[in-house]
Specification:
Distance between the termini: 12 Å
Strand order of the largest sheet: 3-2-1-7-8-9
Shape: globular
Structural class: alpha/beta
Order of helices and strands: EHHHHHHEHEEHEEHEHEHEHH
CATH superfamily of the domain at 2-17 and 113-180 and 249-345: TPP-binding domain
Mean pLDDT: 90
Low-confidence stretches: 222-234
Number of strands: 9
Largest sheet: 6 strands, parallel
Radius of gyration: 20 Å
């Protein structure tokens, strides 16, 4: 099986008309991890909407400016929040911030591409390949945005109508958002804690006392932080996504998706194409190592050879046994490369 794994760099370089290094549309370009609190006008507006985020945002910017690891910084905050209620509420506010910040930019970014994204171009190649190989493949993403979802729907002619739509179709690859999505929410199962009218501010303040149900899908891409279930019944809910840290100990996705990955995808994957992923997710790599196919080959696309080698070293350090190939490309360059054709046809 061929599995494609996407990280933040894939969405960052998803519009072939405006690859990294071009200024057009830069204010709407999906951010890398160290750009989550960049000084963009929409992000600044959201800091006003979520004042609980201010202290984290300020320190985050300093960490990013120094070139330090922002995921390690956020992980340290999570460790401290186990004994700090206020900090736990601030981290909950970061969830709401992310669930609003990403859709604001992606809506414009997607419109600028007019459907011509590297995601769509790659999936069309995968669809064509499956006609002769009978391998529809699998798609794993660590991104919160819905750019891959849109490309998947258009390529395979399936609407995403529920959380099961991602894994229900035999003629399309499973699509697994391992860290959650801006289109997902967790319903609050004790909404009486919040009173009669739900607001994100209430949910943030009461976050340590709230209980949550299984992840649901919301059909409206509403960047307000309030979740609406696709059955049109109002639901109290919080964004179902994880704040980026290095050692995430769980996946923010439905149990069925996790089981699909662990029991079906990873053991069957003989060839993996990694696009824009830095391989920093230790928990995922540990799970992959435990069930990896003996014939595993991994092809890495991370923007250039240096970044690709860094990703490769992270994979090696995890103990995952595989044959590594580093391609000196970004996503846009990959699409037209001879190497991609060789990967898909070999």
């Amino acid at each position: 099986m061929l599995t494609v794994i996407f990280g933040a760099g894939a969405s960052y370089d998803s519009n072939p008309s405006t690859p990294p290094g071009t200024s057009a549309g830069s204010a709407d370009r999906p951010p890398l991890a160290n750009e989550l609190f960049a000084r963009r006008s929409t992000f600044e507006q959201l800091l006003d909407d979520y004042p609980e985020v201010a202290a984290i945002a300020g320190e985050f910017r300093s960490v990013a400016q120094r070139g330090s690891d922002v995921e390690e910084y956020l992980e340290a905050l999570y460790d401290r929040s186990a004994h700090d209620r206020d900090l736990l509420c601030q981290l909950a506010a970061v969830r709401f911030y992310i669930s609003s910040a990403i859709p604001f930019g992606v809506q414009h970014w997607s419109a600028q591409a007019h459907g011509v994204t590297n995601y769509r171009l790659l999936l069309e190649r995968l669809r064509s390949r499956s006609l002769s190989t009978h391998d529809v493949g699998s798609l794993l993403t660590f991104n919160y945005d819905y750019l891959l979802d849109e490309a998947w729907s258009h390529t395979y002619h399936h609407d995403i109508e529920s959380i099961d739509s991602y894994v229900d179709h035999q003629d399309a690859p499973v699509l697994l958002h391992l860290h959650g999505s801006t289109n997902w929410y967790r319903p609050i199962t004790n909404p009486g804690m919040l009173g009669n009218v739900f607001t994100p501010k209430q949910a943030i303040a009461k976050f340590p006392d709230l209980h949550f149900g299984d992840i649901g899908y919301r059909s409206e891409r509403n960047p307000s932080g309030i979740s609406i279930a696709n059955d049109e019944r109002f639901q109290y809910g919080v964004p179902a996504l994880t704040v980026p840290v290095r050692s995430k100990s769980h996946f923010e996705c439905p149990e069925r998706h996790i089981n699909t990955m662990l029991r079906e995808v990873l053991p069957a994957t003989t060839k993996a194409l990694v696009v824009g992923w830095r391989a920093n997710e230790r928990h995922f790599l540990t799970e992959w190592q435990a069930s990896a196919n003996d014939s595993l080959e991994i092809f890495i696309v991370s923007g250039d050879a240096a970044k690709g080698n860094e990703t490769g070293q992270n994979i090696v350090n995890s103990g995952l046994k595989c044959k590594l190939h580093v391609l000196p490309y970004g996503f846009t360059e990959l699409i037209d490369s001879l190497e991609l054709e060789a990967i898909l046809t070999s």
